[in-house]
Each structure stands twice: as C-alpha cells, then as structure tokens.
Amino acid sequence: MIAVSNLLVAQGNFSLRDVSFTVPTGQYGVLMGRTGSGKTTLLEVICGLRRVLSGRVQLLDRDVTALKPAERGVGYVPQDRALFATMTVREHLAFALEVRRWSRSAIRERVAELAQLLGIDELLHRYPVGLSGGEAQRVALGRALAMRPGVLLLDEPLSALDEGTREEMFDLLRAVRKQTEVTVLHITHSPSEAQRLADRVYLLRQGRVEEVADVQAPATDTRIQLP
Amino acid sequence: MSVAAPPQTPPRRVGSDVPFLLGLSLLGCTYLLLIILMLAADLSFTTPGHLWQALASREIQYAVKLSLVSCSITTILSLWVGVPLGYLLSRQQVPGKWLVEAIIDIPIVLPPLVVGLSLLILFMTPPGRALENVTRSHMGFVLAFIVLPLALGPGLLLAIKIVFAALGEAFPISGAIAWPMAIGIGVVTVFLLAATGLGGILEPWCQRHFGTSITYAIPSVILAQFSVSCAFAVRTMRVTFDQINPRAEQVALTLGCSRSQAFWMVVLPEAKRGLLTAATLAWARALGEFGPILVFSGATRMKTEVLSTTVFLELSIGNIEAAVAVSLIMVLAALVVLVIVRLFGVRDARVL
Question: For an engineered disulfide with B90, which of A222, B62, B167, B241 has Cβ 3.0 to 4.6 Å away?
C-alpha cells in the first residue's frame, strides 16, 4: 500500500496542502495533474527526497515518514530517467544488489532475469549514451525493480516516447505488474494512460488530491480533461 | 467617395553586415597578435644552446625539481580540499553560503604580494610560531607516533577492502566496526613502537629527514602555491558538480545508498573530467606562482628557488638568455596543460 495522509509540503511559492490518498497493495494507481501541479514533488516526498512540514507517508503498512530514502524500499523512475553515465546497463541492473551485498552468482541470476523481462539482453554491455528513449526507460525501470521493491514510483514514464515505443511500454508495464505484484504509483498528465493502466485514478489539483470514482472516466469527464 | 487604404510601409533596405564583423575581428585580432608575437619573440631570442646551458646548471636543475615536486604536492592538497568543498557548495543549501563563496574568491582577487605577506605575518603570530616550532623540532615525533599510526589504521582496512574487491567478494567489515578497528590498529601501532624501541629509531630518522622550518623553507613554497591554487580547484569542482544531474544521485539514494556511497559510486566517477581539469589548473597555477613565494619563501638558490624565482634571479643579474630559456620551459608546461584541459577537461568557461 502507498498511503499519504494530511501531507503539508512547501516549496518556493507553491505548496501541497492536506494531501491524502491511498493506493491499496498490489494495485496500479495513476495520479494525474497538470504540469507544475506538484506531481513530481509528491513523488519526491514518497521517496524521502523531500522533507514534509507535516503529515505521514506509509508504505506497505510501515510508517516511513522519518526514514531515509535508502530505507524505504521504493523503486523510483524519475522523468529524466537519470541513468548513471559511467555505468553499463548491466551495472545499472546490479547496482541496488551490489549496495545490498548480494553474492556474485545471485546478482548474475537476477540481472539475467530482469534483462529477459525487460527485453534488454542485447544492451547489457552498453552505456547510457546512445540508448534510445525506450531503451533508457527500460534500463531505468530495471534498475528500480532489481531489488524487488514493494512499491514502484513512475514519473511520466511514457511521455517523450514515440507512438510505437509507447505501445511497447504499455505492454511492458502490464507484464511487470503481473510478474511482480508491486504496488505502483504512476504519474502522468495523459488521460489515456490512466484509462489503459489504472486500477485507481487520482487527481492532483491546486495542491489537493482526490480520487476519481470511475477509472474509465478520465477520457470523458470534462472536469478532469487536462491540456 | 473612396476610402484610401493606408499606405503600406515599403520594405526596408539593410546595408551589408561585413563592416561590422570586420571591425570586431580587427579589434579582437590585436590581442591575438600580441600573444603570438610575445611567444615568437621568446623563441627568436633563444637558441637550443641557451636551453641546454640553462638546463645544465645545477641551480636550475634544482629549481625544475622543486617546481615539479611542490606543484604536484600542491595539486594533491588542492584536490583534497577542492573536491569536498566544491561538492558541499554545489549540493548543500546552508545559510551564509554566499559568504563562504566570497571568502574562497579572496585569494583569486587579492594581489599576490599581499597573499605572501599575509602568510608571512600569519607565521609570526603565536599559533604560527608554535606550528613552526613543531615542524622544526618535533617533526620526528609527529611523524612516527601520530601520522604513522593514523595512516596505518585506515590504510590497512583499505588494503583489505581492495583485496576483497579484487576477489569479487563483498567487504566483510561494515562502517560501524571499521572506524573502531582503524583506531584500534593505530593504538596498537603506538604501543608496539614504544615497546619494541622501534620508535626510538624511527623518531630521530624522521626528524633528520623531515624536520624543517616553514617560512623561508620548502613548506612555505607549497603553502604559498596552495593558498591560491586551491581556490581554482574549489571553483572547478563546484562547476563540475553543478553540471552533474543531482537526480542520478537521488536515485542512488532510493536504491539503498547512503550519501557517502552515492558520492563515491555515482557522483565522483562522473566528475572524472572535472577532477582532471581541476588538477591541471591547480598545477599550472602553482607553477606560475611567484609573488607569494618571493615574500613568504625568499629566493634562496638551492633552497626555495622554483622556476618563476629562477626567471627573476637570472633577470636581476642581467642573464636574459637564461631567463628566456627558463621561461620557455614554463611556456611549454603551460601549453601542455592547456592541451590536456581542452582535450579531456570540462567545457565550461566559468571555471577560469
């Protein structure tokens, strides 16, 4: 479960006030909001990268509000992917496992498994420079999933991809969900993504979050049509 | 009655841009020409014979050696300080940061002679004198019983870590145990040195070889170079870290890294170019240092004479050929630095 309650965050001239919502364990939550509405800030709060003035963050029944990012067990895929320029794709997939001091053979096994799932076997020896948008997105996803996190946070994972790649990513995200039973929070401004992937849809507007009752609504409900 | 349409503005004619660009080029070229002519004049003034003659002189050989050694030590010290300070300035938001930044810029804008004089005055104050007394009279004790044990603890752990890394195994000692272990090794070393009498041999040996004053001796040369070079290393590293996406570091944190692990595993490898640039700039800056060294270290042949001092000394006795020959050696070193930075360094004008 991803549960945020009564969150208060201030950042420069904008703030998130009294934000509360819950994504039940194993579900795929999509949070929608305009550019600049604070979606990324909210993800950073859940990751532990940004401090809150008040409120609580719970992940899988654990109160993580006071924990460091490293202790929260979240897989985070930022919008710009932020791949490690000096590491190969293989090293990206192994990174969280090396930090956790897994044995060499266990790491090799897990990396092979991830590469298979994400379809990046061919890329393992490559560096981030020169990867296509879709490939980079898969690597970032693999890096986040390697340690089998209970929670996966995706910041605009499908924007900046061309149409064909986007379709592949839809399939991939569905496959990931099926195989890992991870709880997902996916941030986007696109109603169609919500429609195609979400179990739950949330709206972030003017610093507040509300859940949309009908998952299929986003495309038709004019109230939440986003530019 | 017909309403006249408002007259359309006729298309404007614009003259050629050539005179403007030509004017800019001409003005700019005067400076380029000056630099090239200066170097050409140096070259025309000297012959290979002069160069060899200069290099054959014992004093100049000493100056070359002292310059190379002192600049290299200065470079290492500058990085040692420049990397942490540059990283903190780039990533931490603390009140009063502007003040820190302003203070670091002081050595860059201060007249070099003033830097030297300030250093000299600093070592005339009681704390400065006390420090100099230690390096002059108690260096053996400091090295044998303080520096060696301190270095041995972390050094041994680092060696074990490298061996394990080479074998592909995880380092078995966690951070919480590593520090007490390092301190333990240090304490044992001190005890062994005292008990076996090895310290009684090591201490006078260190004193004989490393005991030295600071002012008007080699440490003052390094300190004078460091006080200016380090500012450039800090600036370069700061710009380098500014250019590295903090998001990658943040992802590393979510993947289980501490701040320190994220720094060593993600940030520092990406800062390689910046490190190289900072090192070469600090080195070049140290090589050219003259004013502070003259005031703080003096210009004693075979003692505190570096290459810039040589140029000054040779000029003062009218030996222009030797001065130019030594200058050319320094020009060559500067060109090498320039090429290294252009080829491998960070491409950002702000560092200079």
Answer: B241
**Alpha carbons B21 and A7: distance in angstroms, whole number:** 59
Q: Would an 8 Å CB–CB cutoff place A72 in contact with chain B?
A: yes
Of A85, A87, A104, the CB nearest to B168: A104
Chain B, residues 263-292, CB within 8 A of chain A, namely: 265-266, 269-270, 272
- When mean pLDDT is compared across A65-74, A158-167, B152-161, B292-301, the lowest value belongs to B152-161
pLDDT digits (tens, 9 = 90+) for B80-128: 999 999 999 999 888 889 999 999 999 999 999 999 999 999 999 999 9
CATH fold of B45-123+214-351 = MetI-like fold (1.10.3720)
Spell out the long-range contacts of B347-352 with Cβ–Cβ below 8 A and sequence spacing 24 or more.
B348/B239, B348/B243, B350/B235, B350/B239, B351/B232, B351/B235, B351/B236, B351/B239, B351/B277, B351/B278, B351/B281, B352/B281
Q: What percent of chain A has pLDDT over 90?
A: 59
Residues of A in contact with B168 (CB under 8 A): 104
Comparing CB atoms, the residue among B253, B256, B272 nearest residue A147 is B256
Instruction: Locate CATH 1.10.3720.10 in chain B.
Output: 45-123+214-351
In the three-class reduction of DSSP (H, G, I as helix; E, B as strand; rest coil), residue B138 is classed as: coil
**CATH number of domain containing A36:** 3.40.50.300
Chain-chain contact of A70 with B255 (C-beta, under 8 angstroms): yes
Please judge whether A82 and B248 are an interchain contact, meaning their C-beta atoms are less than 8 angstroms apart: yes
**Per-residue pLDDT at B62:** 94
Task: Give residue A227's pLDDT.
Answer: 42
Residues in chain B with pLDDT values less than 70: 1-4, 168-175, 346-352
Neighbours of B332 (CB within 10 A): 10
Which domain range does residue A104 map to? 2-224
Residue A144 contacts residue A184 (beta carbons within 8 Å): no
Say whether pLDDT at A222 is over 60: no
Candidate from B168, B169, B270 with C-beta closest to A85: B270
pLDDT tens column, A3-41? 999 888 887 767 888 889 999 999 999 999 888 788 889
Hey, is the C-beta of B175 within 8 angstroms of any chain A C-beta? no
How many domains does chain A contain in total? 1
